[in-house]
Amino acid sequence: MNTPETIPLISLNISNGTQSPRALHQSGCGNDLLPLHNTDLYKDEAFKNKVQKIVNDTPDAVNSKDDTGRNVIHFLIENANECDDAVDILSFFIRSNVPLDEPVGKDFLYPVHLAILYNKPAGLSDDRFAVSCINVLLETEADISLAIGRINKDGWTALHYPVQTCNMKIFEALLPFYAEEPGAPNKRVPILNFICTQDCSDTVRQGMLIKIIDRLHKSKNKFAFNHCWNDFTPLKQAVRSKNVFAVETLVAKSYVRLTDEDKSGRTPIFYAAMAGFSYDGDKCLRSLLSRGPNLGILRPGYDLDAIFVKKDKSQKTVFDYARENCHPDAITMLFGTLHPHGSYFKAKMYTYME
């Protein structure tokens, strides 16, 4: 599985609009062989009569797949631009019991994924196509949470796409049905871990993070706050990514455990030191260490020993990593203000710097 820093948008350049996802299926569409895989059929309101005649003549047509594995639902979502009323047509076929639980393509995309990727066809702006498709796709699902939670080859559910592209409207359409249950399939990327790897300097994604945390609180799902994915909890993901807003929000609003060690013997503060003390790194470290704005009240478990004595399995302390990753002046400035007895703290620090 890809790491959070390298996960692509399912190999499609959707976010900047420079490439159409239709390129995924440009070749071998099979329209000559499958009568329902033909956009000319759906260009007027009489399509239902035409479809019914085809189905009467060829009963298997509704469930037939072209040579790329697409059934008629996949085909219609991808070609919505060329249909008279794509949402109405889609609804018609869903009510005809065309399967919705079949993925397509090398990226293992389900219809709900495609509806988000093929958002905004001609004539439908403001995400109405994706939101309308999502509503239609889910209205016949017996278990909506299961439908939202189906994953592509990279472990993304439908909710991961709007988080990645910062699309609040689609995000809000999906979130009420999303469930992150303890013991969820290991292949699924937990949504809280995922958003902590994203840039949360944007106010839209900040709002998403808060909504995800609030939903986890409402469902009393404490497990998700400390769920290890690729060996890292959400807080450690945020610290490693220097995601200041995520660190501050997780520490203030969630059930994260600040002193839990991973298999490397490291607590989150180790990763703050390993990430280096840039401006964002400073703010992450301060959020972890201090309970007050004056940096004079350390959090439980984060005392002098946690910085200067406690070692990970590489036999290094937090301070060792700090010395490797930042200028001595930055260490003096930061650590020298973190203890009520600043002179004692500085003396201890200088002892370790010798």
Written description of the protein model:
This is Ankyrin repeat, SAM and basic leucine zipper domain-containing protein 1. Keywords: ANK repeat, Repeat. Pfam families: Ank_2. The protein is mainly alpha-helical and 354 residues long. It has 3 domains: 33-178, Serine Threonine Protein Phosphatase 5, Tetratricopeptide repeat (Alpha Horseshoe); 181-253; 258-353, Alpha Horseshoe (Serine Threonine Protein Phosphatase 5, Tetratricopeptide repeat), CATH 1.25.40. The chain contains 18 helices and no strands. The chain has helices at residues 47-57, 72-78, 86-94, 111-117, 128-139, 144-149, 160-165, 168-174, 191-195, 203-218, 234-240, 244-253, 268-275, 279-289, 304-308, 318-325, 328-335, 342-353. Helix 2 runs antiparallel to helix 3, helix 10 packs parallel to helix 12 (244-253) and helix 13 runs antiparallel to helix 14. Residues 1-32 have low confidence and may be disordered.
